Amino acid sequence: MSHLISVQLDALRVLLEDLVALGAELQEEADWTAACRASPGTALPGPVGDAAGTVVAGWTDVLAALAARCLAVAATLDAALSAYRAADEGLGDQLSRAWVPGVAVPR
Which residues in the chain land under pLDDT 50? Predict the structure, then answer.
């Protein structure tokens, strides 16, 4: 059984742009966090600083993974949006060629 899927292309474009922006922000945060990776060990020598450095390293990995996932979903949405727009244009072209002005068709 098939189901009707309705897609609002403008809303999909807004979602795509938001995901790209979020992915960029997360990547920037991951880069900044990676740059601060050594700071806890310097500020807190010993096991506490080492543990804090490990947490910072893990958080950097989490941020980088989230950024990559956001950008991957954005790329998928971009491909879907392009496909939907192409299908919509193709259908519009077919309908405009099929329409003959002023010709009545009896039913």
Answer: none
Residues of the chain by 3-state class (helix, strand, coil), percent to 5: 80, 0, 20
CA dist 94 → 16, 85, 89, 99 (Å): 28, 14, 9, 9
Supply the pTM of this predicted model: 0.72
CB 72 within 8 A of CB 19: no
What is the rounded CA–CA span in Å between residue 59 and residue 51?
12
- With b for 16 or more beta-carbon neighbours within 10 A and e for fewer, the 48-87 pattern comes to ebeeebeebeebbeebbebbeebbebbeebbeebeeeeee
H or E, element range at 29: helix 9-35
CA 107, CA 99: separation in Å to the nearest integer? 16
